[in-house]
Design a protein that fits this description.
The structure holds two protein chains of two kinds. Chain A is mainly α. Chain A has helices at residues 20-29, 31-53, 87-123, 125-140, 143-154, 158-168, 171-184, 188-195, 200-236, 247-256, 265-293; strands at residues 2-6, 13-17. Helices cover 69% and strands 3% of the residues of chain A. Chain A has a two-stranded antiparallel sheet. Chain B is globular. Classes of the chains: A mainly alpha, B alpha/beta.
């Protein structure tokens, strides 16, 4: 959404809003970024178009023992699961759930993190101290046990899972956005807006937020990877939504049904690789964008 | 320090100052270099100044003198620790939120660095009409744009309609400063605080910007609080000059008096190093030794004594180390005042 250019007066980046295409072009120019984009594009096609062509019916279970955990065949491209359902269709349906949970949780995390970061960095003082203490608290508490506890308390439901992940993954964003805001609030154009009589809300909206946007976007892409992994982890240990099969819950059921022990690779390998591909894709694109947004990171 | 406003001879006595700064203090907490604890830096340490309508008061000082802190405190961009900043009868120091925002249009600022003070994401037109939008002036967007074009034209940015469409980062430094001036003047303020408005600009552009500012002063009757490190610039542009050293006014007077007859040893040193064509003058240059002291450790007594040539000439009198000199009138005829134990005063 943004690109950058060096202004003549200093080495800080000047953000200019341009199209999504410009951002994609610059990531495409980066070798690792290009790999990431391809991985994400494939995943997106699978998650969006896949279920339309190969709908998954979780009630379409096998009729007898001979239909369960069958290896790949012409009828079932990736074999069947422990209930005799088609793993290929299940895998495609799982892609959609995994991505959906990951992206929704990221949106929550970004809104909270960016909001807290901007408010704390802009207003400073006791508000900053309080908010950053809270952020540090969330940063140091081990997220996974807390997610497990919250998941266990609030139930196994997709909305709850999204909220739990989203509410526990914002501190990094808050820290990064705050530090950028701290430097932005010292800019003379912020002082100028203040001396023109602009309210704090207006200054944040017009003079601060647009300048941290690029940073937020770069960070968000990385957070998606973390959220997808968090969802997979929760689902794998059995805290997923049983009605919405994700890659994590496929792994869970493959594990508890003994498919892993029986060597039914067609059941556990696809969701495992799926998670790997999508997390790798987001990470590569995120780091590539970060490098583009912040030239000082080059070579690190 | 006396809070009583002085009545300069050049001003009719019925005029009241539009701005009077009374015993202003600005303090910052700074971390100690050894990392342990904090000290208080007294950036502005008891400054009193008056600015009359339509007048230009130059505040001259080297970096670290607190001159920018004075400007920022007047603009309420930083908080005063104590003192009063009375603008048109209202003390700005205790004002907050909406009350302060309502007064802001009458006090505008021109910043030092035109590359930093304008948001690089905004077009020239948006930058110039931003003050109108913020303060809800103008009936419609078209109205505001018309005012914006007129303001750009007044600031010498022609063709205004073409320049208005460009982004501020596409302009040269001089053009950007003109945009900043146009935007500051569009609200027709009573006071404009100009913090080193030309120091970042190429020397060839400075005269043009100063001419524009003088033109605005004549046209709008705006008073300037002109912050500069350059005494010759102050002499050229100001009606009155206040020399600040380490957070305190050490001498104040009209440019002619101050340059031709400086009283305070610090001013004398500053005046002696103004580049002049005559070679004779260079013989009497007083080059100050040492750095301006740290505002966390302002010298006791007269704050200038550790660097003062007069102090050494007078074989280091005790009074300079024990007593902080007051700003006193040096003549009954004029507004000239100086803060030195060894200057003849009339008060």
């Amino acid at each position: 959404m943004m690109t950058f250019e060096l202004s003549a007066s200093d080495e800080s980046t000047v953000v200019q809003s341009t199209g999504l295409s410009a951002m994609l072009r610059s990531i495409w120019a980066d070798r690792l970024g290009r790999v990431g984009l391809i991985l994400l594009a494939v995943t997106a096609v699978v998650a969006i178009v896949g279920p339309m062509i190969f709908p998954f019916d979780p009630t379409d279970v096998g009729s007898d023992a001979s239909t369960i955990l069958q290896p790949p065949s012409s009828e079932h491209w990736l074999g069947t699961d422990e209930l005799g359902r088609d793993v290929f269709r299940e895998f495609i349906a799982g892609a959609r759930i995994s991505l959906f949970v990951g992206i929704m949780a990221t949106l929550i995390s970004t809104v909270i993190g960016a909001g807290i970061g901007i408010v704390a960095g802009y207003f400073r003082g006791p508000l900053d101290t309080t908010l950053m203490s809270a952020t540090d608290f969330f940063l140091v508490i081990p997220a996974l046990p807390l997610m497990i506890a919250m998941g266990a308390i609030f139930g196994q439901n997709l909305v709850i899972i999204i909220l739990v992940i989203g509410l526990l993954s914002w501190p990094r964003t808050a820290r990064i956005v705050r530090s950028q805001t701290l430097s932005l609030r010292q800019r003379q154009y912020v002082s100028r807006a203040k001396s023109l009589g602009a309210s704090d809300a207006r200054i944040i909206r017009r003079n601060v937020a647009p300048h941290v946007m690029q940073l937020i976007v770069a960070n968000t892409i990385l957070v998606v990877a973390g959220c997808i992994l968090a969802e997979a982890t929760l689902s794998f240990i059995g805290l997923g939504d049983p009605d919405r099969i994700s890659w994590g819950s496929m792994l869970h059921f493959a594990f508890v049904s003994g498919a892993v022990g029986l060597g039914a690779w067609w059941y556990f390998l696809p969701p495992g690789l799926g998670i790997l591909v999508v997390v790798l894709g987001f990470t590569l694109v995120g780091h590539s964008f970060e490098r583009i947004a912040n030239p000082r990171l080059k070579g690190e | 320090m006396t809070a009583e406003p002085i009545r300069p001879a050049e001003h009719p006595s019925d005029r009241l100052p539009i701005l009077s700064i009374e015993d202003l203090h600005v303090e910052y907490k700074v971390k100690n270099p050894n990392g342990r604890g904090k000290s208080i830096a007294r950036a502005v340490d008891g400054v009193s100044l008056s600015l009359y309508p339509g007048e230009t008061l130059a505040v001259v000082g080297e970096s670290g003198s607190g001159k920018t802190s004075i400007a920022n405190a007047v603009m309420r961009l930083i908080d005063a620790s104590s003192g009063r900043i009375v603008f048109d009868g209202v003390d700005l120091v205790p004002l907050k939120g909406k009350q302060l925002r309502q007064l802001r249009p009458r006090l505008q600022m021109i910043f030092q660095d035109p590359f930093e003070s304008l948001d690089p994401r905004m077009s020239v037109m948006d930058t110039v009409i931003e003050p109108l939008v913020i303060n809800g002036i103008g009936a419609s967007d078209a109205d505001r744009r018309a005012l914006g074009l007129a303001a750009l034209e007044r600031a010498g940015l022609t063709p205004a309609d073409r320049i208005a469409r460009r982004f501020t980062h596409e302009l040269s430094g001089g053009q950007r400063q003109r945009v900043a001036i146009a935007a500051a003047m569009i609200l027709e303020p009573s006071i404009v605080v100009a913090d080193e408005p030309v120091s970042m600009l190429d020397v060839s552009l400075r005269a043009g910007i100063l001419r524009l500012m003088a033109d605005m002063r004549d046209r709008l009757g705006v008073a300037y609080l002109f912050i500069t490190h350059d005494l010759s610039l102050a002499w050229m542009f100001a009606d009155r000059i206040a020399v600040v050293y380490l957070g305190r006014v050490v001498e104040e007077g009209s440019p002619v008096e101050l340059i031709n007859n400086p009283q305070h040893p610090y001013t004398k040193a500053l005046v002696s190093v103004i580049p002049v064509p005559e070679t004779a003058a260079t013989a009497n240059r007083t080059v100050l030794t040492g750095e301006i002291p740290n505002p966390t450790a302002i010298p006791v007594g007269c704050r200038f004594h550790p660097r003062c040539p007069l102090y050494r000439e007078q074989s280091e009198p005790d009074v300079c180390r024990t007593h902080d000199p007051m700003l006193m009138r040096t003549s009954t005829q004029s507004v000239h005042r100086a803060a030195c134990h060894f200057v003849a005063t009339v008060d």
